[in-house]
Amino acid sequence: MDRCNGPTNATCDQLQLQEDARLLRHLKQELEQPTAALLERRQLLAILGQLKILSRKQHIRAAIGQEGITSLIRHLIESKHLPKVAAEGANVILNVCYEKSNVNLVLESGGTATLVSFLSSDDEELQANAAGALQSICFQPEGRGIVRSLGAIPALVKLLDVPSVNVSALIDFMLVEGTNDSS
User: What is the rounded distance in angstroms from the CA atom of residue 158 to the CA atom of residue 160?
Assistant: First the structure.
């Protein structure tokens, strides 16, 4: 049932913001659980998928906070052996890092090293999503420095031979613009 059939657009917008906030609280609570438990119940991929979609909204990215980022990075590290889960997690990082404060949280949490390690995966979706997340991180000068110091540029150069158009386009951007301090 459409709750916004009668109310004004402002009321509908307010209802949507409240629903988004409720869903974010729920997802953050779910992410507090151990990775193994979420994987065993086959919930982690679904949680990350919901968070990926939700984190496309600026107010959600601004509200995810340190606990949300820390939990996300923990799950990313602990599920790195599962390419589909890791790719979905990298996609969430890509979205949340449109906010400078979240880039700083990802850098502080050590998540950048995990993303760089994903560039050497055999899974092209994981490579593309990790490159996209690193691209978001590189929009901040601090991020560019850390990404370079972690050896991402040689890993990105190796990916130029990958036949995937998605990977190639991201790599081209990263090498030309994303790691350039004058951009």
Answer: 5
Distance CA 99, CA 58 (A): 8
Per-residue pLDDT reduced to its tens digit, 130-145: 999 999 999 999 999 9
Q: Per-residue pLDDT tens for 12-46? A: 888 888 999 999 999 999 999 999 999 999 999 99
Whole-angstrom Cα distance, residue 162 to residue 157? 10
Instruction: Tell me if 93 sits within 8 A of 53, measured CB to CB.
Output: no
Is residue 109 within 8 Å of 115, Cβ to Cβ? no
> Locate tokens 């679904």: which residue?
46
Structure tokens at 25: 């609280």
Q: What is the pLDDT of residues 66-109, one digit of tens each?
A: 999 999 999 999 999 999 999 999 999 999 999 999 999 999 99
Helix (H, G, I), strand (E, B) or coil at 3: coil
CB-based contacts of 128, cutoff 8 Å, min separation 6: 87, 164, 166, 167, 170
User: How many angstroms separate the CA atoms of 74 and 100, rounded?
Assistant: 20
